[in-house]
Amino acid sequence: MKYVVVMGGVISGLGKGVTASSIGVVLKACGLRVTSIKIDPYFNADAGTISPHEHGEVFVLDDGGEADLDLGNYERFLDIKLTRDHSITAGKIHHYVYEKERRGDYLGQTVQVIPHITNEIQDWIERVAIVPVDGEVDPADVCIIELGGTIGDIESTQFIEAFSQFSYRVGAGNLCVVHVGLVPVLNVVGEQKTKPTQNSIRKLREYGLTPNIIACRCTKELERSVKEKLSLFCHVPVANIFTLCDVSNIWRVPLLLRDQKAHEAILKVLNLESVAGEPNLEEWTARADLYDTLQETVRIAMVGKYTGVSDTYLSVMKALLHACIACGRKLVVDWVPSTDLEDSTATVAPDAYNTAWSLLRGADGILVPGGFGERGVEGKILAVKYARENDVPFLGICLGMQLTAVEFARHVLKLPDANSTEFDAKTENPCVTIMPECSNEGKGGTMRRGSKRIFFKVAGSKSAKLYGSVSHIDERFRHRYQVNPNMVQLFENSGLQVVGTDKTGERVQIVEIPNHRFFVGVQFHPEFKSRPSKPSALFVGLIAASCGQLDDALQDAACNHEPQQNRRAEKRLAATDLGDGTCRSKRQVKACSNSNDTDEAQDVKTC
Predict the structure, then answer these.
(1) Do residues 109 and 34 both lie within one domain?
(2) Which residues form the CTP synthase N-terminal domain (predicted)?
């Protein structure tokens, strides 16, 4: 097993996760199999109880693991399925060591950071790195490990020491250390400054690690003289210093690394030059180029309570982007704080109230994502009501679906006090209740989580058609509450159709309003399984409905045995040379005609 460790200095938020994912993409394009591990130095057992304002969204894995959002980056970029053990935290490591000490596994030793904590870190990495994550049976060739935080953080010290020891454990040629540093430009002088990166690498070397590769975050390409200066002070060859400058879209980052021959430097350090080929990134190039040429926009109103930090809905944003590529539209997201839609805001902050409603009314589609807590709930219900009454395409996820039930009960069933018991335990009309197997006594790890099977009850529903008219699907969940099974018949009698349930047929998983353009609520999180080349079916449905393409999307699914969202994404990324007789659909012709490539638009043939 070969290892690539990505760590960073100076400040957080430099893009270590995207860098690690992009390195994985380039190595995979060279013909190597890749897996990933994320290390977070905090003492939480997992990311499940951390505020979204601090660490962004909680990414849910197939096995129910609640992990840092970077694992979502790894899964999307590399098209792999990770496990909870691929997310390492200081809390997990220390808890594991404490349990071993209580069992007497250390035979009376004094348990210390060195060697017990550092050994456990190394053992965990070696144990998890060999777990196949790409559907194959054998272990991967390379494991990409990202160390969160920054060099110099006191909580990171134990992990850096572990990697220092790990370099000797695995031996020369088996570990490549990539340091992501900041090279800022001061507007006053206009010069690229290397001192921040120099200082962070100096600190890293104090711990016994010298980077093999330096990846420099900056606004524009590094000057040759700057690379030479970094090489001199950091003891890294100029050929191993790379630019991570700002690019037009995230899919260009792997291309940026490839163009600078970063893969050659990494393969040389790992002694893999003889087994790896040249990277084939045609699909990534096509996707990046296509997105940059899209001009016709689709506006989606994102109605939530964490709208101040976009990372809180990162997977939702990525799923929207994937769907927009499939539909040939450029995404515009209007962030609508749900509290600003509420009547109370009209009095205390009328400008915010008017702005929020203006954004909602101007949207082509509305999305209400998941969330917890009572704040902003009434605003979300108002957004659901607006979408339902005005035939605006709508997708409600998790809490968003539960609130569709509340809104429907209040305004269609005429039950004004209808509510979720999460927000009103004494409501006389509880249309959302806590699940029998869950409780509110503890917060961490107490929800229904992970991949579960959903069975379609209505084969002709929009949701079923978008998924390719299959009988069942597997999606990821994270919730304590559910639509009250006792009210299902009332909902269905009045027009809110339950089209997907669990295997018992009792637990509501998907709801629709059939005579609405697109009104879908789902208890699961479809965004977690969306991939650039395999966009989520329901996000494709939302975007397609929002730009007038839903009939085409449903027809595609009905006429083809292959799941339509996969086929549409592949067709969208197809080469412009259609000499082999390949056809594209009308909406693809329209997307091409809106692009800057007139030759491509001319060559397209309609089916």
Answers:
(1) yes
(2) 2-272
Name, in order, each residue with C-beta under 8 angstroms of 3's C-beta and a sequence gap of 6 or more.
125, 129, 142, 143, 145, 166, 170, 174, 175, 176
Helices (H), ranges, 390-458: 399-411
Which tens digits make up the pLDDT trace of 187-218?
777 889 999 999 999 999 999 999 999 999 99
Catalytic residue among 57, 342, 422, 527: 527
CA atoms of 209 and 317, how far apart (whole Å): 36
Residues 247, 65: Cα–Cα separation, whole Å: 32
The reply to whether 234 belongs to the active site is: no
Establish if 605 belongs to a structural domain: no
* CATH number for 21: 3.40.50.300
In 3D space, the residue among 514, 502, 603, 511 whose CA is nearest the CA of residue 554 turns out to be: 514
> Pick the catalytic residue: 116, 525, 592, 600?
525
CA separation for the pair 532, 568 (Å, rounded):
12
Please name the residue that has the structure tokens 């000057």.
Answer: 223
CA 100, 104, 105, 111 dihedral sign is: positive
Whether pLDDT at 525 is above 90: yes
Write the secondary structure of 136-169 as one string of H (helix), E (strand) and C (coil). CCCCCCEEEEEECCCCCCHHHHHHHHHHHHHHHH
Catalytic residue among 30, 176, 327, 398: 398
Q: Is 191 a catalytic residue?
A: no
Does residue 223 carry a catalytic annotation?
no
Q: Is the pLDDT of residue 46 over 60?
A: yes
